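An instance follows:
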Amino acid sequence: MKAAVCTKYGPPEVLQIMEVAKPLAKNNEICIKIRATAVTASDCIVRGFSIPFWKPMGFMMGLVVGFKKPRQPILGIVFAGEVESLGGNVTVFKRGDNVFGWDLFPGFGGYAQYKCIAESSMVALKPGNMNFEGAAALPYGGLLALSLVNRSNIKSGQNVLIYGASGAIGTMAVQLAKYSGANVTGVCSTGNLGLVRSLGADAVIDYTKEDTVKSGVFYDLIIDAVGKNKGSKLKLQCKKSLSSGGRYISIDDGRPKNDIEDLNLLKELAEAGSLKPVIDRIYPLEQIVGAHKYTDMGHKKGNVIISVGHD
């Protein structure tokens, strides 16, 4: 089968399209013919591995994914495709089922034509109203955003500000916060203001033109969907706009906690039309290097999707 193999840590060019052995499903596994995956920020972090090994975070990451090169050379956290074969003990799925899901490191394996995964893992039937590309755009941003929303316990009528509202996580956070009944303000760049409004934001702030929030405006919750390493004068001012007892929560605050019920909730919301993934660009697997270069620029809208072809 074809796969994009990460030969070592480094720039996007370390990814090479190779012929590798097709995996075989174990007793409790399903083998998925992958139709689409996504290039996520996490994929790029692992591929680049720019954290020095002598730093605690770099050392811990090396223990998980490998020090000199990825222990699992086929990256790709998310996937969408069809069940091609079953292990002997599989009961939840059947051949031909269309599924989607994610497999965090050290699992990976999405950048390939086939992937095996335990049926008890984060895999579910894909939304019936979405193609494979749309389904592949759901898990990463959707599950991470849902983890933030669940941890923050948003209540109807609260004022919620989402910093980084146009990215993979932010676009989902806007919709999930709005679904929870919040009054949502999205922070993004000029070119994405219309997109964020279309997702349900009640107000938008252009961080490229504004360095403070309006006087007298306070937020019950601020969700940082870009991480603590990315900031601006506006971001610092936002923190000063928390209401008494308000919370600031970042995507960097610990490992996300999700279960299969969360994945099924994303499916249900998508089928109900309450959650729509945003896709910026779609690349074929053969152009994985270009997809990583584009993602590395840090200005994508929503998701960068990889279409995985089959001969």
In short: The chain has nine helices and 14 strands.
